[in-house]
């Protein structure tokens, strides 16, 4: 019988103990910010956790649209994940090169959005694994046997641009922007060329980076994270949608929410890249508006 993972995070010690379990699958989630000189695939080939397969968020995506790593159709997710040797009965552990701060959380979110709850993120990611001297491998990865993965898109995970636009007046949910404060305020350019400066009107701001101890690349304690959400003006008892630059770090917000007990955080998958694609949509600059009591 397939065992469940200790969700939503697993430790390096747990993964090392279960590394060779036959029903475990490990994915190295290779997205790196645009300013990085090496690609995720290059890092994967040079060193990775034994048995890991490369989960390319730009490929496991809707490639028919201009935006990178757009939320994939169910058939694409089924095909791409099955090709990684992952079936519906497998446990999945995702890691990245930034402790889960971005890309691993994206994989975690996608699996759950397609009905696969048996998925976790490796706490500390590659940073912790390598620092502890745990086993690694390099060069060409073994090609796994294709598996059948039945992806079924779940309700309540993804918001569209039209929903976020309507929310400007309907105010059915809070919008929390996961970009750094200068990008949110419009005082610094995002790492995506051609974008307007600023943020979605009325949104709050909590940088995904602030949720982490950046030395250990580990999430801060649940109490610390709750305090950060509160400081950002977020009411965790009410509906919350996370946005960002391109849809990666909103998943970090969703994972952080899950860790502290808010398991229903949705994401605006298009995020700022998508919002800016329509020049008729309004923007704001400066810090978040004061919270209305």
Description:
This protein has two domains: 9-131, Oxidized Rhodanese, domain 1 (3-Layer(aba) Sandwich), CATH 3.40.250; 158-276, Oxidized Rhodanese, domain 1 (3-Layer(aba) Sandwich), CATH 3.40.250.10. It is globular, with a radius of gyration of 18 Å. The model has no long low-confidence stretch (mean pLDDT 92). Helices cover 29% and strands 13% of the residues. The strands form three sheets. The protein has a five-stranded parallel beta sheet with strand order 1-5-4-2-3, with helices on both faces. It has 293 residues and is of the alpha/beta class. A hairpin with a 4-residue loop joins strand 9 and strand 10 (218-219). The chain contains ten helices and twelve strands.
Q: If you average the pLDDT, what whole number results? A: 92
Radius of gyration: 18 Å
Shape: globular
The poorly predicted ranges are none
Task: Count helical runs.
Answer: 10
SSE order, as H and E? EHEHEHEHEHEHEHEEEHEHEH
Helix percentage? 25-40%
What tags apply to this protein structure?
single chain; 293 residues; alpha/beta; Oxidized Rhodanese, domain 1; 5-stranded parallel beta sheet; 10 helices; 12 strands
Concise structural overview:
This protein has helices at 12-18, 40-46, 74-83, 103-113, 125-131, 161-170, 181-185, 222-231, 249-259, 271-276, and strands at residues 9-10, 24-29, 53-55, 91-95, 119-122, 158-159, 174-177, 204-205, 212-213, 218-219, 240-243, 266-268.
